Amino acid sequence: MADLKGVCCALCTTFNGDGGAIDEAALKKHMDNILSAGVHIILVCGGTGEFPFLLPQERRRIAEVAAKHINGRARLIVHASATNTKECIEYAKNAEGLGADCVLVLPPFFEGPREDGVYYHFEKVATSIKIPVMTYNIPVHSGFDITPALFRRLLKIDNIRYMKDSTADIVRIQTLVATGGGIFDGGDPTFFFGLLAGCAGGVLGGANALAKETVQLYNLVQTGDLHGARTLWEKMFPTNLFLWTHPYNPSVKAATNLRGGKVGQCRKPVLPLTESEFRELKKAMKSLDRGGGYI
């Protein structure tokens, strides 16, 4: 199986007007626009996909729709996290059966286990499937930090090959890269520096709105054009910083909608940005080139 690398868009989930159901037509259209921008990987049902607010059947349906619609045009990662190990394995097996290239898995969250229990959880999930597992480190939300030392242990388990690290800590990222695992930067405002540190790519919610720029930045770094990459990054940074320092999912959806996407609003009880926040976002996005990004 080929290594995963490049830009992974942590895809927004599109809902109908009142958020009561998944808008599958809008989801497919959004995927088409993201794919046309050249992203290498799409992640569904992640944090930016609002997985805590999805029913189990909705998570499975989104994975099914994505697998069929992408149809080999990009790699597919399905977020399979659950606090219960058995349930997580069920999500992982379902993703594998749909043809996913990898599953993303958090440590069990909310009063979850200690390190030995986290290791047990990842080991049981990884040995239940044949596709790779990407561990997901976002301790501010999961309540557990997958340290570089623990990740080194996890890499000894068959199928555990990657980490999405969303600490936005460039020192941590460099330490993780030194483990030899495939590290994906999950911090929008550190993505450029994560690439310079040797990350295999990024798993980014901001790529919903900045798909073309994010892919272009990755390509410039890969070809060694660091001056061009830095110039582009200076345009991207204000938007990426806004996303990271404000309510994340409403910000990503608002930015995507502003750039021509039709991803709607978050499912309640997550509310849209306030009017003042929306004005601040529009100001941050002025540095972006007109016509770039989403379409």
3D structure, described in words:
The chain has 295 residues and is of the alpha/beta class. The chain has a single domain, classed as TIM Barrel (Alpha-Beta Barrel). Helices cover 45% and strands 13% of the residues. It is built from twelve helices and eight strands. It has helices at residues 24-36, 56-70, 85-98, 115-126, 139-142, 148-154, 170-177, 191-197, 211-222, 226-245, 248-258, 275-284; strands at residues 6-10, 41-44, 75-79, 102-105, 133-137, 160-165, 182-185, 201-204. Strands 1-2-3-4-5-6-7-8 form an eight-stranded parallel β-barrel, surrounded by seven helices. Helix 1 packs across helix 2, helix 3 (85-98) runs parallel beside helix 4 (115-126) and helix 10 packs across helix 11. The two termini are 31 Å apart. The mean pLDDT is 96.
List the helices and strands and how they pair.
Layout: E1 6-10, H1 24-36, E2 41-44, H2 56-70, E3 75-79, H3 85-98, E4 102-105, H4 115-126, E5 133-137, H5 139-142, H6 148-154, E6 160-165, H7 170-177, E7 182-185, H8 191-197, E8 201-204, H9 211-222, H10 226-245, H11 248-258, H12 275-284
Parallel strand pairs: 1-2, 1-8, 2-3, 3-4, 4-5, 5-6, 6-7, 7-8
Helix pairs in contact: 1-2, 2-3, 3-4, 9-10, 10-11
